[in-house]
Structure formats: C-alpha cells, structure tokens
Known about the structure:
Largest sheet: 8 strands, parallel, barrel
Shape: globular
Radius of gyration: 25 Å
Distance between the termini: 70 Å
Strand content: 15-25%
Number of strands: 19
Structural class: alpha/beta
Amino acid sequence: MSVAAATVRTWRVEAEGGEPAALAAVEFRSGQPAAETGVPPAPGERAGAIVFRLEREAGSPGFTVDAGPERLVMAAGTLRDLLDGAAWLRRELGLLVPCPGREVAGPPGGEVREGRHEFRPAFRERGLVLGCDGLHEQWREWFAFASRNGLNTVFLHDTPPSPWDRPSGGRTGRLFALWDREGEAVRAEARRLGLRLEFGGHHLSTLVPREAFEEHPEWFPERDGRRSREFNLCVSNAGARRALQEGARRFFARFAGCDVYHLWADDLREGGWCVCAGCAELTPSDQALLATNLVAEAAEEAAPGARIAHLAYHDTIAPPTRVEPRANVDALWAPRNRCYAHALDDEACWRNRQHLQELRGLIAWFGGPERVRAFEYYSDGILFKWMAPPHLEVLPRDAAAYRELGLGGLLDLAVSPRPWWGPTWHAWWFARCAWDGGGDAAEALATFCRANFGEQAAVFAEAYRRLDAACRQLLDRGGLEPMGRGDVLDYNDRPAEELRALAGRAARALEEFAAAAQALPIAVDGAGLEAVEELAPTVAAGMHLAERVIAWDAVMQGQAAEAQAHLGMADVHLRALGDWYHAHGGSAWSALAEPMLRGARWHTDRVRAMAAGRGDPVR
C-alpha cells in the first residue's frame, strides 16, 4: 500500500518532542512552495498530518518513517537527523531545492510507501566546501541549500588565501574579513541547522611569520643547501615548532567555535618541504602530518573538542611512513590529479587505480576508514577551467566506491571564477549521491529537469547529457601530466602521441558541445533562461580548451596553417567567456576570474607563438 505524493503534499505539518522537532517542521514548510503544503482538503476528504517527532532514544545518524493513509511520522534522535528526514521527504514528494534561495515543485506523480521504514545515510559526514569569496558572501543561502538537500557539513575554505593583515590590493581572499564581521552569525546559523562547521585552507605557513626569517632562518625549510623563507617550515626545529603552535593558538582564537580546522601546507605539487639533516628521513607526508600534529596539540587546549584535518594532497597524498596521527587528527584525502573521465574504481583507468591504492594505504595508516574523508572536486571551476561538468555517471560510481570502503565522509569542493546561474545541477546531484552512496543518473536528471523546466524537461536533459559527454572527452588526459607549474587541464605535449590522442578526443568534444548548445531551446524564460545562461560558459570554456588543444597538436605535427585556424576559434570562444563574465560576474569573483582569463590567454598565445615559429616560451 502507498499514499500518493499529491495527497501527502496537502497534509498539515506538526511537531512532537520539543524544539528540534518544531524547527524541523518549520524548515520542512519553508523549504517548499507555500501552496503545496497545508492546503485545506476538498469537501468530503479527510485531512492528514506529517509529524516530526524527536525521540531521544533513537539511533543516529538516520531517521525512521511510519507512514499510514492519513498520517506520516518522521522520527529521529537529533535535530540534524530530523532535518535530513525533512530533506528526504521533500525529495519523495517531488519538492526540490535546486539552488540556493529557491524551491520548486515537480509533478506530484510519486508515492510514499505505507509502513515503517528506516533510513541511514551512506556517509557520516556529507559536506559542501564553499571555496571562494563569491560563495562565501552567499553563505546563508548555501547553508540552507545544504541542509535542505541532506548535507550535514559546511566548510568555509579560503581561496585565494586571506592574509592576516588583509591589505587592500593584490589577489587575496576576503573570508577572514567576512568572519570578523559575521562569524558569530555564521556559527549561530550552523548550530540552528545542526550543521558541522569547518574552516581554513592553505594557512600553515602563515602560522610561522615569514618576517622571522632574518633572525631565525633555521625555522624555515632547507633546499639545495640553503634555508628559504618560502613555503611551510622546518618541522624538526624546536623554535619553528613553538612558533607554529603559537600561530595556531592565534588562529583558533580569531576563528573560534568551529568543529574542524584546516591548516594546510602551501598549495604546491612538490618542493615545499625541508631536506635538512633533521627532516631528510621524513617524507613530505610525514612532515605534513608532524606539522598537523603540532597544530592539533595546540588545539587540545585552545579549541577543545575540535578536529584537525591532515591534508593528503599532491606530494602528501601517499600515506605517511613514520609519523602517527594524534587522536584529534583525521585524514582528508584530496585526489586533485585523478581522472574525472572515469570513476575512481574503474579498472581501465591506471591513474585512478594508483590513487585508490594510495587511499587504501591512508586508511590503514589512520587505523580504519572512519577517520578518513574524501575531499572531492566535482564542483571545482578552477580545476575544470570554468566548466561545470555534470558528472552523470562518474559521481554516483565514486560515491558507491567510497561507501564500499566505509569512509567517514564525502565532501565536494565548490569553487568557481563565476557565479552559478539558476538551477545548480552538480551541487544538487552531489548532495543526492552523498546521501544515497550512489544514484541513478537517468532518474535523477529526469526528476531535476521536470521540476525546473516543466514541458521543456526533455530538451534540457539532452543538453546535460551532451555536456557530460563533451566534458569527459577533455577530462580524459591519458598519460599527460601538467607541465611546469601548469594545472591539470593545461596538459602537456610530451609524450607527443598522448597529445595526439587528446586532440582526437577534443575534436569529439567540440561536436558534443555544439550538440548541447543546439539542444537548448531559444524561447525560454524563468529557470529555463537561467539554465541557458548557466550552461553557456561551460560550452564556451570547453570549446576554447578543445580548440586550443587541437591547435597545439597541429603545431607539433608541423601544420601551422591548421593551428592558426583553430587558434582563431579558440579566441572566439575565449572572448565569449570573457563577455559572459563581465556581464554576470562582479568583484566577489574577480580574484579568481581575472587571473584565470589571463592564464587562458597566455596559454593560447603560447601555442600561437609556437605556430609562428617563435619557439616555446616555457621550454
């Protein structure tokens, strides 16, 4: 037996058991269109009730649902679990929160099964990482989005890093200044919604003042036989360790009240650690964990109860070999160099096989998966060069693989050089996969598009599918590694045969991007118009990148004229991307957007110089 979703939508909402249940009831009502709940029944019909009940003895995490023909009881032991239940029920009733500040109602064609059912999330912690100023300024809306989509963790990640003194110029973040103004409100809202609050970024080196180098060069890393004030610290030096812990205490005092702190090493692929006699036998991973342990020791007094994250990333992604983590340290595994064209457990992808082996080693070193979380990049507009790949198949397969490993949490880095316009598929899809530990992409995409685009759902779903196919072509790097200090999708031309293969995939990507653009309707308004505006920069950025790769390969093949033709098209798409940004962006996005636009221009001009026979300015 079951009850039609259309019927349940009309039921009144009640609360039993105290303030958490009352708040869950209020959040459920406010998280859906006003006309959809609490509508009086038609003459001759009997009113039903949705009841949120706090049961102190209930297990956590998770909730139970007891559904009958006229009454549905949602019971849980904590506020957060009740709110997760509210998020689940909204989804079952076709009521979606597809982006911050918006709730939409899809066709009420579903049903709620009668009887008693238990629900548990796939991961203990399911988190959204707000990673740039533009998203930080919308923190209230993103907190609500996270809560109403079943996420229970929000991490305010500083990109680019905010300096302690916040000078007026330069490429610096604004998060510290925002916290100084609104930190108390941020903490209060996180508590109100039962959200785990995390804070920080690549700030480890700022804890040891760089100006101390003149008096204490021994505090800083040794490289090539000389001490350098650049990057991190000498973890074997007692003075450096004391300075690090004093800096950590200042950090905890200024940004008090968070559940997890992130004080990571400098954002380098390699070369930031020390090779002095005292550090030489410690791998980068060991040095990073030793520094994290020192921070964690300071936290035991300055921020009791808080957890400290050890970042496994770039040259620290391999498990440590000597240093054991303190009891209040957990691992955060950040596989930025992985392949996003394939699922993490795809046996056909050598790159992901290697990363998965590293993850298993990290799990063993930390004594089990519950102390390890994955820091994923599904919504990273820096890594993906302005694009927002839909990850239709990769994301649910990844979630299932992480669930099978038993990880304690799954987080998604949301960072972008541009605002996300309208329905935000990738963030919504992540939240769903993080709860379920997988998902049916076809069913979820149909639900999302019906709720947002109504009669035009099919054409938008086709556009998303085409975009996914196009992005996966560009995300498949084969055997190419970034050159110099280039990023992942800056690629390389060595070995040349790998660039040749990438150029072939780029040509197929161009076809799919064009098909995605052609699938989009012309006469649209409302959410449909917003979605067209949102998908436009992914198409422009992807086509620019594809044309540049094809031109690069043509240069390597000695086909200068063909290269120039593709560079001309790359210029067209880059101008379109810049025009979009200048029409839709603003100062909150400029710290990332402007250098990224300059970087895209530099890489394009570099290939142009090679095509003109002026050599490679990098090599």
